[in-house]
Hints:
Layout (H helix, E strand, L loop, with lengths): L4 E2 L8 H13 L4 E5 L2 E4 L5 H9 L3 H40 L5 H12 L6 H14 L4 H9 L5 H14 L3 H7 L7
Parallel strand pairs: 1-2
Antiparallel strand pairs: 2-3
Helix pairs in contact: 1-2, 3-4, 3-5, 5-6, 5-7, 7-8
Amino acid sequence: xxxxxxxxxxxxxxxxxxxxxxxxxxxxxxxxxxxxxxxxxxxxxxxxxxxxxxxxxxxxxxxxxxxxxxxxxxxxxxxxxxxxxxxxxxxxxxxxxxxxxxxxxxxxxxxxxxxxxxxxxxxxxxxxxxxxxxxxxxxxxxxxxxxxxxxxxxxxxxxxxxxxxxxxxxxxxxxxxxxxxxxxx
Length: 185
């Protein structure tokens, strides 16, 4: 029999939860261990800081400070983006009028504010405009597909841009059908 109870960590657990669970086991009088991000953590051998260092490369306090700094930076970028939305709306509406057919402008003007406020903060607007500009300048469907596949999409953003191509591009349905949706992004 092993001297350690093996604790299975659930998907989504963070380092603080792993530390807490192991230290609780130790208080209950049981030695426990777990694998977290490929590192073995031991309730009786590793201090709290030892566990943090194994997982994050920092002590608990250093990790907390780094996380706070990152969250503050995310909040700052979000506030800056929100402050710029009115300017960005006008900019994207103007850019749309430069490359999209006139019969698409009204719909584009409704989509722009929504896309600027979503998870991608308007990235997909740029992606579509890049592809449409390529096509207007004589680019082929294969070149447009190559651009799309090099834009760094997740599955969700790929699907969104593909749908926007169908909706707004002068070759929308044709390119939409041409794209290999089974390809890895």
